[in-house]
What we know:
Blueprint: H1 2-23, H2 42-58, H3 65-68, E1 69-77, E2 80-83, H4 84-97, E3 102-111, E4 114-124, E5 138-150, E6 153-161, H5 163-170, H6 174-194
Parallel strand pairs: 1-6
Antiparallel strand pairs: 1-2, 3-4, 4-5, 5-6
Helix pairs in contact: 1-6
Amino acid sequence: MxxxxxxxxxxxxxxxxxxxxxxxxxxxxxxxxxxxxxxGTEEQHKAHVAxxxxxxxxxxxxxxxxxxxxxxxxxxxxxxxxxxxEAVSEGKGWRTAAPDLVMTADRMNVKGDMVTxxxxxxxxxxxxxxGLRATxxxxxxxxxxxxxxxxxxxxxxxxxxDQKDMFRQLGVSPxxxxxxxxxxxxxxxxxxxxxxxxxxxxxxx
Length: 205
């Protein structure tokens, strides 16, 4: 019985990785929204990007997504490429897992249409989200994000943080962390192959 389960899991992984191989693209090949880039001022860019940390991640005001992001925005997190709706879903999952989550933009740097942010995330894992069970453990994660601005909205994002360290803080075993990562790959491959991306309506800014 155990051998049959292992064979089924191996077959599922093979099929999923085949889909993933066909769908994954390097970050630099991701489609870029059309339209001329408006540089704007440094303060305008900073204020706009600050909304990601204040309104979305810390306060959970996801109705503002259409105001903040370009509808064709692509989000690259570590080695994965997300559509906007997938990235929003992941963000909601982390807030569900840690309802007291607070993300702070510690330092911002603006160069042309690019905004680079060093950030800190703190919270307590008291809820169920993104496949994680509540552990009651506190987490402290530091990372860096780069935001590309187009026409006053975020058109592309690159996020880097140590996910393995976060899992260690939560007491997740390396095996379960690996399975979580591979399942995320399969889910993204499936969505990119068979699902259409929903459009977030802009409600003004």
